[in-house]
Amino acid sequence: MKIIFMGTPDFSVGTLEALIAAGHEITLVVSQPDKPKGRGHELQPTPVKEAALKHGLPVYQPKKVRDPEVIGKLRETEADVIVVIAFGQIIPKAILEMKQYGCINVHASLLPKYRGAAPIQWAVIDGEKESGVTIMQMDEGLDTGDMLEKAVVPLAADETGGSLHDKLSVLGAELILSTLDKLEKGTAVRTPQTDENTCYAKMLKKNMGDIDWTMDAAAIERLIRGLNPWPSAYTRWNGKTLKIWRAEVLEKEYEFLESPAAYFGTTSDLFSNDNLQLLAELASSSSYHRLMLFSTDGIGRSSDGKKTDASSRDYFQKTLEGRRVISSPLSSSVDNETLVVLTVPVYDKDQNIIGVFGGSIDVTELTTMLFEDLYSGSGYSFITDSDGNIISIESTHNEIRENFFTSSSDWVFQTSEDGATLQEDFKQGHANCRKITADLSHARYISYQPLKYNDWMLCYIVPAVEARQHFAFINNFEIILFAFFICIVLLLIFALWKINQKNQTSLLRQAHTDALTGLLNKVYAEHTISEWLREKDFEDLQALMMIDMDYFKQINDTYGHATGDQVLKIFAGFLKEQFRTTDIIGRVGGDEFMILMKNVRLDYSIHLHLQKLYTNLQNIDIPELNGRKLSCSIGCAVAPTDAESFSQLYRLADHALYTAKHNGRGRFVIYHDIKNQQETVLS
């Protein structure tokens, strides 16, 4: 097809390159005018302009596409369609309708959600689980045209605006080729947009990165990721501006639960003897009162061997929605003790919730662990709900009983309004500091701060005398309380984390490991490789390999699945022998494996290593196979030669693997050799 291409930033370049590589004729490239950049304010070409000039394409840079001379220029330029991606100006009706197939837009969201200028970043900031690309027939509205095709991409837990930008750029380049093909064949299906579930992705501004530390910790973390790399999140400290590129929500109490939850999700029977034994072992070496594992009907087993039913519990129902939950104090159905319960979902390999795993904490034990007396016993802290009901307090402080406000005979506020104001602050979740008296003689301060979870308030009682000696406590109480919340998040069960840390290491290993082969599992292998590539400056080559055992289904069908499992174990051990301990090796699933060979000096070394691998593979003798030798196909992509990000390398290595299998198997293909027909047969 003959195409007028309209785009400006880096995000548009991949699509332009894909159109050229696919053989489409680009008759004109339209981009925004050059802008001054840097200290010298020298004019810099747009990324699209640079790419176009590299290919010898004509470039047109109008200030306003609405101007009649611009419309005339585009009308006289021969083209079947106008492809628009992140151009940066509103396209008038005269241009939208001038070509046979009109204007086709590549939009970086799953329309109708996130119409507007910055859909990529807002998807991360808002905590979306998935995003994608929509190819749309443009109309006069703002991203309201009929949808032609969509493609979805899941968001990683550590997804940034930059990493999602790269993923969607590649995805958009692939999808536009499919759409144009369908348009030309007359098979494209137009789906009108609705206004249901729409939201506008407003333009990013630099001041958005100024972190408001009163926000929820998880929201701050998402903001930091969403604005990375531009415009970036920042804060001010001692008169200086600090850019923040990465953050972590410290929820150690949940980390302890999620590691075994991930392991339970890999087992075929939640209540197997092995799982129940592990449950008991975890509880015996942790500070949880009891650990519980439930199926989705609420029926479960506790670590002390008792059957339990949580189906009617609010915390159980909320966890089935995919949420981490901490309950309000409740009476145990097992032994009638007052407990707080923390729970997380148990997911299977397809990310379906198959159960709930949780731990209970005795309120009195929690109090002892969390609250250390302030000022040598004359000051202390406690937690209430919004009505003043005591959640947790050191038992020695009997001046405060079941409810802080109903203990008012022991507490006199400076004015009658102070008590009412305090109650209103609790109900509204406001932080403040007020002077009170105890026993009509000893003046004290109460400072309080919402924990941003349930309706709980964290309170400090501080003697006035001590407070005056250490006035910074009162003067900076909001900072102190907020630091308390940020560092420990919810109930701040740091003592639990320290005790459980040893167990967590072992369980994390289990959660990150493929149960059959002992290699890294798919999720953790991809995460580890992605992190390594993101931090590299690419002084050396990084080779991503996709390995597929040839005819493995025949082995299963002929010799049985038990033998097949043994073959997989042997092959995994072989791979560990062939690569360095610093390389990353994982099992993707079935008979597929993924390897990142780190820091290779020469491209030629990769070829030699793969040739040696196959030679050594012929030396493996498995008696159960009756002399049959193992074979494999390998696809490889190299950073930075082929690509730099994990998502791009994965796609290219997978393409190379497909080429190897298509051309006869038992061979390896390196992506950048494909164009030169340098396929190397393993022999």
Q: What brief labels describe this structure?
A:
single chain, about 675 residues, alpha+beta, Rossmann fold, Beta-Lactamase, 4 domains, 22 helices, disordered C terminus
Question: Which helices and strands occur, and which strands form pairs?
Answer:
Blueprint: E1 2-7, H1 10-21, E2 25-30, E3 35-37, E4 42-44, H2 47-54, E5 59-60, H3 68-76, E6 81-85, H4 93-96, E7 103-107, E8 113-116, H5 119-125, E9 130-137, E10 147-154, H6 161-185, E11 199-201, H7 217-226, E12 233-237, E13 240-244, H8 252-264, H9 273-284, E14 290-295, E15 299-302, E16 307-309, H10 314-319, E17 325-326, E18 330-331, E19 338-347, E20 353-362, H11 363-370, E21 380-384, E22 390-393, E23 411-413, H12 416-428, E24 432-438, E25 442-450, E26 457-463, H13 464-469, H14 471-475, H15 477-488, H16 494-512, H17 522-535, E27 541-549, H18 552-559, H19 561-578, E28 584-589, E29 592-600, H20 603-617, E30 632-639, H21 646-662, E31 667-670, H22 671-674, E32 680-681
Parallel strand pairs: 1-2, 1-6, 2-5, 6-7, 8-11, 30-31
Antiparallel strand pairs: 3-4, 7-9, 9-10, 12-13, 14-15, 14-20, 15-16, 17-19, 18-19, 19-20, 21-22, 21-26, 23-24, 24-25, 25-26, 27-29, 27-30, 28-29, 31-32
